[in-house]
Amino acid sequence: MTRRLFLLFLGLILIATASYAADPSADEGDDGYRLWLKYEAVTNAAIKAEYLKYTTFIGNSAKGEIGQSAAQELQTGLKKLLGKNINVTSSFGARSGAIVFRIVTSSNQIQQEEGYQITLSGGNILILARSENGILYGVFALLRHMQMQRTLKNLNVASSPKIRYRMLNHWDNPDGTIERGYAGASLWKWYELPERVDPRYADYARANASLGINGTVLNNVNASARFMSQEYIVKVAAIANVLRKYGIKTYLSVYFAAPKTLGGLPTSDPLDPQVRAWWKEKVAQIYKEIPDFGGFLVKANSEGEPGPQDYGRTHADGANMLAEAFEPYDGIVIWRAFVYKADPNADRFKAAYEEFVPLDGKFDPKVIVQVKNGPIDFQPREPFSPLFGNMPKTPLGIEFQITQEYLGFATHAVYEAPIFKECLDSDTYVNGEGSTVAKVVDGSMHGYARTLMAGVANTGNSRNWTGHPLAQANWYAFGRLSWDHQLSSEQIAQEWVALTLTRSQKASGHITKMMLRSREIYVDYNTPLGLSRPWMGVHFAPEPWQNKGSRPDWTAVYYHRADSAGIGFDRTSSGSNALAQYRPQVQQKWIDPDKTSLPYLLWFHHVRWDKNLSTGKSLWEELCTRFYTGADSVLWMQQQWDLAKPDLDSEVYANVAQRLKVQRREAIWWRDAWVLYLQSLARQPIPAGFEPPKQTLEEVKQSVNVYLMR
Length: 710
Ligand code: BDP
Fold this sequence. Notes:
By secondary structure, the chain is of the alpha/beta class. The protein has 3 domains: about 45-160, Chitobiase, domain 2 (2-Layer Sandwich), CATH 3.30.379; about 165-485, TIM Barrel (Alpha-Beta Barrel); about 525-570 and about 605-710, Alpha-Beta Complex (Alpha-d-glucuronidase, C-terminal Domain). The chain is about 40% helix and about 10% strand. Helix 6 links the parallel strand 8 (about 215) and strand 9 (about 250-255). The longest helix is centred in the last third of the chain and has 33 residues, at about 650-680. Mean pLDDT is about 95; it is low at about 5-25. Bound molecules: beta-D-glucopyranuronic acid.
C-alpha cells in the first residue's frame, strides 16, 4: 500500500469512528416497548432549569403499596428526564424544592376518590389526592406534563375520573392464544404461574395506570371453566398481586355452566339452591386468594355460550344470582348485552334490545350491563346501540373494541378515538335533547355511581405490545377517554405522538393529521355510506359475495342486501323496523333516506343504484368514488408519514412505512372486491376518472380464497 493510500484509508477509518462516537446511542432503534412512558431527556434548557428546581427529593407520606409505586415511578421518570437521582423521604419538613405527595380528607378541587390536584406551594410541587390511587394518577399526569416539556409556571391542574370502572377486557385463552388478537400471544403465562411472575406484568400495569385504567379482565369472554379452579385462582392471584400495586383490580370472565362442568352438579340453573351455593363458595374461595378481587364478566346465551336461558331463566336471573354471591364483597357483576339468535327472519340489530329492555329495573344494584357501542358488532362505523336510550333503570357500561378485528388487524393504521367519541357524543334523547351516550354511561343522566367503560385490549406479547406501532395510540386513547370522555381526539393524538414518537411540532402535525383522517379513509375503502361486514370467515379479507354460512346472519349478503335494484338494509317500518328502537327524535334523523346523513344511509335504507344523493352523484357513483378515494388516500397517509421521517426513530419509521405499504395493497384489494362484486349486480360502468380494477371478480375471489384455506 502506498503512503497516500494508507493515509486515505486511515482517514476513512477515523471519519467512520468519529461519526459513530459522536452519538453512540444514535439509531439504536426504538423497539416500542416503552410505549408512552419513554421519559426521554428534556432538551429545552429553560424548561429543564425550571424542573431542576424540584429535585431535592420526593416527599412521600403515602406509605402503602400504591404510594410506593407512585414514588418509584416519579424517581425513574425524573432520573431519565433530567439525569438526576432524586431521593425519596417521608419527612420533608419545611424545605422547598420538593415534590410532595399529600393525602387530603376533603377538597373542593378533587371531586372523586381517585382524582388529584397538582399545584405549586411554598417552592414545592404538591400532588394532592384523597387516596393513594389519586397520588399515582397525579404522578403520571405530572410526568406527562414534563415529557411534553410544558412550563410549570402557574401550574394548577385538578382532574377526576368521570367513570368509576375503567377497564381492559382481554380475550385471552388459557392456551396462550388471543381471540381477535393481532400482536402475538397472550401476556399471561399460565403455565409458569404462580411461581414465575413475568416482569412484563408490572410494565403492563404501569402503562395502564398511567392512563387511569383501574381494572382488567384477564381472560376471554368465551371463558374456560378452568379459571374457577383453585389451580388457576392462585395463578390469577399472582398477577393480581402485581396489578394491585398500580391500583388495578383483577376480574375474570366466567363460564356460566361451571357449576356443572367444574363443580359436578347436575345443573347450572341460576335458581337452583345448590348452584347458588356453589357460586357463593366459589366467590369466597377467590376472595381468600385475592382480597380486592374486582368481579365477574359474563357472556351468556350468546354465540353458543351457556346461560340462564338454557334453564328457561332470564339474563336478570343469571346476573342476580352472581350478584348475590358478591354481596359480602366489593366486587361487581358485569353482564354483557351482546346477544343474538339464529333466526333467519330476524334483524340481528334488534336482538339486544328485545332481550334486555324488558328486563330494565330487574337487575341487582351490583350488576352493570355492558353494551357494545353499536347494535351489531364493532363495525368501522355503527349507529349507537339503542339500549343506551332505553334502560334508565339499569346502569349501562359501554364496551369498545380496541383490537382491530374489523379494522384491518395489525396492518391498517386506524386511529380509533373518533370512533369512541362519535358514539359517546351521540344523542339518545332518553331525557330530551342533550342525553348523550356519554352522560348515560358516566352516570350523570340517571344518577348512577357504578359506571363503566371497557375496551377489548389490543395487547399481546409482541415486543411493542400492539403489533402496529400506531395501534398503541388506540390503547392510549381508550384509557384517556375512560378517564375523561371530554378530551378531544386531536388532543389525545397530539399527546400520544409527543410522548411516543417525536417532540417535533412539524412532524407531529403530519402524523396527527394522518391519524385523525385514518378512520374515514378506512371506512371509505372498507364499508362506505353505512355498509357493514360482520360476516364470518377471518374478518380480514373482503368477501361481499359470501352467501353461505351456518346461519343467515353469518353471511355477507345478509348485511348489505345488494341486489339488481340497489343496496342497503331497510330498517324502517317497510323493513325490519329496527329504527323504532330509537327515541322519536333519533328516528327523525334516519327515517327519510333523503335526510339521513350519508355515513348512516345504508344502515337504514335499501337505496336504488341510480338514486341521486346530496353529493350530486348517484348512489353507484358515490360508492365507487368512496372506494377509490379511500384506497388512494392511503398514498396520502404514506406521504404524511414520510414527511415526518426526519424526526422519527428509524426503526419505528420503517416499521410503519412497511405496514402502510401493506395497507395500500389491501385497500385496493377491498376496493376491487366490492366494486367488481357490486358491479355484477348494479350493471353500471366504473365512473369516468377511475381506472377500472386490473383484476376480474373471479381473480379477486381466488385471492381471497387463499386466506380462507386451512
Ligand atoms: C365478535 C367476535 C367474537 C367475540 C364476540 C363477543 O368475533 O370473537 O367472541 O364478538 O364479543 O366480535 O363476544
